[in-house]
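_Backbone structure tokens_
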Amino acid sequence: MTLIAAAPAADSLQADLLQADVQRGFTGTPDQVGEARAWVLGLLQGCDRRDDVALAFTELGANAVLHSASGRDGGMFTVRLALSSTEVELSVVDQGPLSVPAQREADESGRGLSIVHQLADEYREEIAATGRTATCRFVITSGETA
């Protein structure tokens, strides 16, 4: 796991969550999806959309590891959180598509993007030569992130 942008420790960050932009890089292996999810959950303690953001991250993180160059030997993915008193924006940046995951209705797998679309208030993807960025926006209804 690699720290890309220094962020305050989770306990000291809680007071600063009304306005924060943090990101962290992770090795592109399945176990790191769990590590990244724990990091996201730790940052969003007290946020009413915490579970929605964590589940959306899990789906996007799994896609990064399974369907992009991030899952190859030496691959990485980055998780970004932009937090304010009214919303959480989650981005997962991978190292470029091996394939583009498609939203499917009846298959046993391939439901992750459908779940993300249902959870998030907004979803968008940007694909560039250097990688793909999947971004979700979640409106906070309680008025607080921490």
The chain has one domain: 10-139. The radius of gyration is 15 Å.
